[in-house]
Amino acid sequence: MMPGATVLDGERTRLVPTTENDLDLLAGWFASPAFVEHWGGAPITREEVAEKYVGRRRPRVESFLVHAQASPVGYAQYWYAGPADGGIDMVLHPVARGRGWGPDATRALLSHLGETLGWRRVTVDPVRDNVRAVRAWAKAGFREVSGGADSLLMEHSFSAERQG
């Protein structure tokens, strides 16, 4: 882990910042058609994984391994769109799906983004036919704000929570 990197804890998950040491694991995952089914739909080269998902884009994009039961089960990132807003992307390994770990990891990310970083709005853009992901994002507090034939735009706003 890099110095000063923030580990985020959910109730059932832990998000650990990615490093170059995670390249072999991530390259294997992103080379799998089942893993990337709803993440662009096509396997990603090791070089692209190295460029995008092991922390080389910090601080603009923060990348994490999602851990559950002390093992890595997925990848998550958040990225800045402005000073107080941005987006989250997450993909879990196929065997880790449907266990509630996605919504738990999302809540940990939202807590960090809203409480620690002061974000006001977070978006996600799941593929419309990925019903499991759409439900998981909704469980974590996202609501649909727009969408096309293939994708949705969902958002979580912190402003209503803070006004209470």
UniProtKB/TrEMBL annotation:
Q: Looking at the record's lineage, which domain of life comes first?
A: Bacteria
Question: Could you tell me the EC number(s) of this protein?
Answer: 2.3.1.-
Q: What class of enzyme is it?
A: transferase
List the keywords (alphabetical).
Acyltransferase, Transferase
Q: What is this protein called?
A: GNAT family N-acetyltransferase
Ranked from the top, the taxonomy reads: Bacteria, Bacillati, Actinomycetota, Actinomycetes, Kitasatosporales
